[in-house]
Amino acid sequence: MGMLVDGTWQDVWYDTKATGGRFERSASAFRNWITPDGSAGPSGRGGFAAESGRYHLYVSLACPWAHRTLIFRALKGLEDHIGVSVVHPDMLDQGWTFLTDDHGATGDRLHGLDYAHQLYTRAKPDYSGRVTVPILWDRQTETIVSNESSEIIRMFNSAFDGITGNTDDYWPEDLREEIEAVNARVYDTVNNGVYKCGFATTQEAYEAAEAPLFDSLAWLDDRLSRNRYLMGDRLTEADWRLFTTLLRFDMVYHHHFKCSRARIADHPNLWAYTRELYQRPGVAGTVGIAHIVRHYYYSHQTINPNRIVPVLTTPDFGAAHGRG
Ligand SMILES: N[C@@H](CCC(=O)N[C@@H](CS)C(=O)NCC(=O)O)C(=O)O
Question: What CDD domains is this protein classified in (predicted)?
């Protein structure tokens, strides 16, 4: 674990001293967009036209943010157009690495680098900040297009439609306002809420994140008792953004991040919904349970100093879901 300061790697853990024990996630630094014709997107600069084989996605199978982008790559039929490299599950003193001594870790398929931080300095030699996945890399200009998953999934949702012919739309225009409202609550209290519980370094900070998390899970469970998906009968990005946290919850967040009041399996609608999404075509193939379990328990030494990885019963994501 660490970060880059003026292009030099420093091995430091999150500093929660300045924030009263609260974990505050920093904003992503690379915010360009792939568009059908290379025109600039909502942020960043232009020049990133959708082209088959030009872009490469670096992910961790453990990471819920990276997992969103892998799901969209599968749902939108982009496997033949965007390559993938998978980092090693252990994120230790060099951060994410391209070691390959673990099933499913591919190494850096483009450059053969050792560490993800080398990709950041290749894109920006004086980069300062965290080195996070996902990373969407442009082979043509040798730089990072984006390291912000919420924007990468929107690019994948539509930018390549002319190449793939897949026009499935998970960000439909008429639902955007409602999707944004649900995303905002889910991001703050659930996706990032579990991290705020887990990385808190004071009791107060932990409790301030724990209560809203379980309030939101109850709210979502109720919403899903009346609606098949968060937006009713249409499956949208709001569902996929929630799914990657739900999938990890009972195996990791419930124990390791002390989100212990209840499991997803104790919320009947959320649990059946998690199974339904898991069983959608292409999704199970994006799920790397071994990396999920290994990464969190082994990498977060401040939470689990002896690095003992628990023996777990994997939830039965393939069981009948009975929805729809
Ligand atoms: N806002 C980013 C967050 C990505 C993120 O925090 N990824 C984690 C892995 S789950 C990471 O790489 N952390 C390394 C670090 O913070 O040093 C996104 O959604 O893409």
Answer: GST_C_Omega_like (cd03190)
- Note if the pTM is more than 0.85: yes
Do 77 and 222 lie in one domain? The reply is no
Q: Choosing from 63, 115, 170, 297, which is the catalytic residue? A: 63
If asked whether residues 152 and 188 sit together in one domain, one would say no
Q: How many domains does the chain have?
A: 2
Stronger pLDDT, 26 or 319, i.e. the higher one? 319
Contact 196, 205 (CB under 8 A): yes
* pLDDT above 90: residue 18: no
Give me the domain span that covers residue 67: 3-164
Q: Name 55's bridge partners.
A: 82, 138
Q: Is the CB of 133 under 6 A from ligand 1?
A: yes
Residues 143-173 have pLDDT tens digits of 999 999 999 999 999 999 999 999 999 999 9
- 270 and 183 within one domain: yes
**The pLDDT value given to residue 59:** 98
Dihedral of the alpha carbons of 54, 85, 253, 198, in degrees to the nearest 10: -80
Annotated active-site residue 195? The verdict is yes
Q: Which of 189, 169, 13 is nearest to 92 (CA)?
A: 13
State which of 9, 12, 132 you would mutate to test the pocket of ligand 1, scoring each by most atoms of that ligand within 8 A of its C-beta. 132
Q: Ligand 1 pocket check: which of 30, 32, 65, 301 to mutate, most ligand atoms within 8 Å of Cβ? A: 65
Whether 129 and 259 map to the same domain: the answer is no
